[in-house]
Design brief:
By secondary structure, the chain is α+β, with helices and mostly antiparallel strands. An eight-stranded mixed β-sheet has the order 2-6-7-12-11-10-9-8. It has a four-stranded antiparallel β-sheet with strand order 1-4-5-3, with no helix packed on it. The two termini are about 15 Å apart.
Length: about 375
């Protein structure tokens, strides 16, 4: 198995070292009990997440983990390529990768099953070992027939519900959650602030930060936004539409199938939920559900241009496009919950490594 070159990191992060006391397999756990506490917390958080989703009528789907490029996120250069006997086209001449998202596989089932979700690992060839990124991390993803506003409500309720389940756990210390952390979680507002990307840029500029419209919002600037909003979770919504010509190159890059906002030309119905300490933790959007428009947006995306340089083409998405064109779909929306970052926030940690039992980056392979 080989990887494509990773994306360039925008922010300078603290590099972690695996030379720790006690547990070289977990760089931030200093003793065995801490490691076990972390493991129990991960289990409790996933249990709480499933409880919420299934209580809302979502059906769990087992999505594939060896996929074509249709299982990739925006940056296909971070895909891990799968090879057998050094043959990367072992699948009858087609290239295969470890999956990064189950999104399109869930979307294919929305017209018939309605509310669906999946849970599992996402693999990304992140080039640096730091406090914000992992090569393998856990996701929960949802897709459902409905609107963008409904989506934001589901995300808000999911994250709040999970945090309160942990805060009200009968033995939080057994999960590594101190009394101070319990108090912090219980003080979390039930409804999170929502600002648009345009408003976020203006807020940052008003505070004296050097950022222009069209720039990506770095993790350092996310922290400033969070502090301005009471050190609580914040939605940043309605990002620039990557298909629109703004007369200049913009850094912000979003997935090709995000639905344009009919009330705000040049914006898409998308959102990032940023959490204290963890930063961007839930990416979401209303989806384009008409085949011809989806194919047009795909072929004009940066993602597709990168895919072509890797030897891929439209056939990587043919299974989904042909389904859309032959069977149609319904207006729908969905998101990916970055569970490792949500757990990091729940723990009150500065490192994503505290959001998983076996943290994997380029330095921690076991």
């Amino acid at each position: 198995m080989s990887s494509q070159p990773g994306a360039t990191m925008q922010d300078t992060e603290v590099t972690t070292s695996v030379a720790t006391k006690g547990l070289p397999i977990h760089p931030t756990a200093t003793n065995h009990e801490m490691w076990l506490d972390s493991t129990r917390l991960v289990s409790a958080v996933f249990h709480a997440g499933r409880k919420y989703l299934e209580g809302q009528g979502f059906v769990e789907v087992m999505t594939p983990h060896i996929v074509r490029a249709s299982g990739a996120c925006e940056n296909v250069n971070t895909l891990f390529e799968v090879a057998v006997d050094a043959n990367p086209t072992w699948f009858n001449g087609r290239r295969a990768y470890l999956s990064q998202t189950g999104q399109l596989y869930l979307e294919a089932l929305v017209p018939t099953l309605g509310k669906v979700y999946c849970s599992g690992p996402s693999f990304r060839a992140e080039p640096k070992a730091d406090t914000r990124h992992l090569v393998e991390f856990q996701m929960m993803e949802i897709e459902f027939p409905g609107t963008f506003d409904m989506l934001l409500n589901y995300i808000n309720e999911f994250v709040y519900s999970v945090s309160q389940d942990i805060a009200n756990h009968p033995d939080p210390l057994g999960l590594g959650i101190s009394a101070d952390q319990v108090a912090r979680l219980k003080a979390c507002p039930k409804v999170f602030d929502r600002i648009t990307y345009d408003e976020a840029i203006k807020e940052l500029q008003a505070l004296g930060n050097r950022i222009e419209w069209g720039d990506d919002i770095s993790s350092a600037l996310e922290r400033i936004i969070i502090q301005k909003h009471g050190n609580a979770p914040v939605f940043i919504t309605r990002y620039p539409d990557p298909m629109m010509d703004f007369g200049k190159e913009i850094e912000v890059e979003k997935f090709f199938n995000m639905l344009p906002d009919p009330e705000n030309p040049g914006r898409v119905l998308s959102s990032d939920l940023i959490l204290p300490m963890a930063g961007e933790s839930v990416g979401s959007a209303a989806r384009v559900h008409e085949g011809p428009e989806l194919e047009r947006r795909l072929k004009n995306s940066r993602m597709f241009k990168r895919l072509q340089l890797m030897g891929g083409d439209i056939s990587d998405f043919e299974w989904y496009l042909s389904r859309l064109n032959s069977e149609g779909s319904v207006p729908h929306a969905g998101c990916g919950f970055g569970m490792s970052r949500i757990i990091q926030w729940i723990r009150g940690s500065e490192s994503i490594m505290d959001g998983t039992t076996f943290p994997l980056n380029r330095e921690t392979l076991i």
